[in-house]
Automatic annotation (TrEMBL), chains A, B:
Pfam families: FCD, GntR. InterPro entries: GntR_C (IPR011711), TF_FadR/GntR_C (IPR008920), Tscrpt_reg_HTH_GntR (IPR000524), WH-like_DNA-bd_sf (IPR036388), WH_DNA-bd_sf (IPR036390). GO terms for molecular function: DNA binding; DNA-binding transcription factor activity. It comes from Actibacterium pelagium. PANTHER family: TRANSCRIPTIONAL REGULATOR, GNTR FAMILY (PTHR43537), TRANSCRIPTIONAL REGULATORY PROTEIN (PTHR43537:SF49). The keyword Cell division does not apply. Residues 3-70 form the HTH gntR-type domain. This is GntR family transcriptional regulator. Keywords: DNA-binding, Transcription, Transcription regulation.
DNA sequence: AATTCGATTTTTGTATACAAGAATATTGAC
DNA sequence: GTCAATATTCTTGTATACAAAAATCGAATT
C-alpha cells in the first residue's frame, strides 16, 4: 500500500499537535504550511481534513483550520469511554481468548516488570501497549479492536504523562496481574471490572495531575 | 454554520450507497460523478475522503474509490459493539439521568406504543430513535453520546429491515419498558443488561434475516 | 478619540491544468 | 490462437489559477 503525500503530512502535523508545537486554538495556515512542507495546498488540505475527522483539528468553513486539543472535561470523558471500551474487550476476551494469547500476555507482563526494575519507562510503555492491544484483538471482534486501538492512540500523549507519578508503574503492574488472572479463569465480569478500574484510574490520575499543573501555573 | 459543496455531495453519495444505487464493490469514478453533480473533482474528492473515514468507501491509492458495504461478519461485529455501547450508556445513565429525561423516555414509549397500534412504522421508528438518543445523552458523557449516535446512524439501514419481522415491534416495546424501569430505579447493571439484550437481539434477528435471504437466493 | 463605512488585502473554496502511475489495447513472436 | 512486450489511453495525485468570502486597514464623520 503506497502512501500519499497527504498521509505523510497528516502524520507529521499530528505529531506537531501532540508535542505542543501547535498549541490549542492555533490557526493552521494553508499556504504557510504548504510551503513549509514543500507541497501545494491540495494535499495539505487533504491532510487537514483527515485531522479534522480524528478530532485534532476543527475545520470552520470559510474561516480555516484550528487546533482543537481536548479540554479537561472532554479528556475525562474520553478516559471514561476508554475504560468502558477496555472493559468490554476484557469481558469478551475472557470468553474467547486463546492459550497462545494468554502466553503472550504473560510475556508482556514479565517484560513490563523487567522494565520497571531496569527503570526503563520506554520499554515499559511499549510492553504495556502490547498487553492492551492483545486484549483488544482477543475480544474476537475486529471492529471493536479497531475502535479501541483508535481511542488508545488518541489518548496516548495524555496517558504517558501520568506514568511519571511515583509508584504508578508498580501499581499498574499489579493491576495487569489481576487482569491476566481473570482472563485465565474465563471470569468475564471480573476481567471487565479489573480493566475498567485499571483505565479509569489513569483518568483520575490525569485529572489530579491537571489540577496540580493548573494551580502551579496560577 | 455554512455548508460546503463537499458536505452536500458526501451526504448525497451516502444516501446512494445506503439505498443500493452504488452496490458493494462499485468503483466511484471521480470525473463521472463530478460532472454528474456539476462540480469539479476537487470537492468531489473531499466528499470521497469523508465517506472513507466513515467506512462506506475504501480509498485505494492510485486506484480509486470503491464502495465498501460491511459484510455479514463485520455487521455482526458492529451490532455487538452497538449493544455494548448502549449498555454502557445505560449503566451511566442509570446513575445520572434527570427526572425530566425520564419523563421524555416515558413519552417516547407512549408514542411508540401508539404508533404500533396505528400500524405506523415510520413514527415508531422516529420515537424509538428518540428513546435511544435520550439515553445516550443522559449518560452524562457527551463524547460517548456522540460515538453512540455515530454508530447508531451507521447501522440505521440494517436495523430498519428487521423491524418488519412479525412481532418484533411489540417485543421491542416490552424491552423498552424494562429499560425505562431499570433507569427509574437507578439500577445500573439492570439497565446495562436490558439495553445490551435489546440491541443484541437486533443483531441476531438481522443475522437470521440474512440467512433466510441468502438461502432464498440459492 | 471612537466608530462606522468602504476599499484593500488575505485566505478559503473551487476549477482547471499537468504529471505520473495504472489499466488497456495493440502488435509481434511462438 | 495464445502469450508477452510495448504503446496508448485513462485515472489519479498534485500544482496552479481564479472567484468569492472574510479579515484588515484606513478614511471620514460624529
Amino acid at each position: 500500500m503506497e502512501r500519499r503525500r497527504a498521509d505523510i503530512i497528516a502524520e507529521e502535523l499530528e505529531e506537531r499537535i501532540f508535542d505542543g508545537t501547535f498549541p490549542d486554538g492555533a490557526r493552521l495556515d494553508e499556504v504557510r504550511l504548504a510551503e513549509k512542507f514543500g507541497v501545494s495546498r491540495t494535499p495539505l488540505r487533504e491532510a487537514l481534513q483527515r485531522l479534522a475527522r480524528s478530532g485534532l483539528v476543527e475545520l470552520i468553513p470559510r474561516r480555516g483550520a484550528f487546533v482543537r486539543q481536548p479540554g479537561p472535561v472532554e479528556l475525562m470523558e474520553m478516559f471514561e469511554v476508554m475504560a468502558e471500551v477496555e472493559a468490554v474487550c476484557g469481558r469478551l476476551a475472557a470468553m474467547r481468548i486463546s492459550d497462545e494469547a494468554l502466553k503472550d500476555l504473560h510475556d508482556a507482563n514479565v517484560k513490563c516488570q523487567a522494565a520497571i526494575n531496569a527503570l526503563d519507562p520506554d520499554t515499559y510503555y511499549i510492553e504495556n501497549e502490547r498487553f492492551h492491544r492483545i486484549i483488544y484483538q482477543q475480544s474476537g471482534n475486529s471492529f471493536l479492536a479497531s475502535e479501541a486501538s483508535s481511542l488508545h492512540r488518541r489518548l496516548k500523549p495524555f496517558r504517558r504523562q501520568q506514568l511519571r507519578l511515583r509508584g504508578r508503574m508498580k501499581q499498574s503492574m499489579a493491576e495487569h496481574e489481576a487482569i491476566l488472572n481473570a482472563l485465565e479463569n474465563g471470569a468475564s465480569e471480573e476481567a471487565a471490572n479489573a480493566l475498567r478500574g485499571h483505565v479509569a484510574i489513569q483518568g483520575e490520575k490525569f485529572h489530579s495531575l491537571m489540577a496540580t499543573l493548573k494551580s502551579a501555573a496560577e
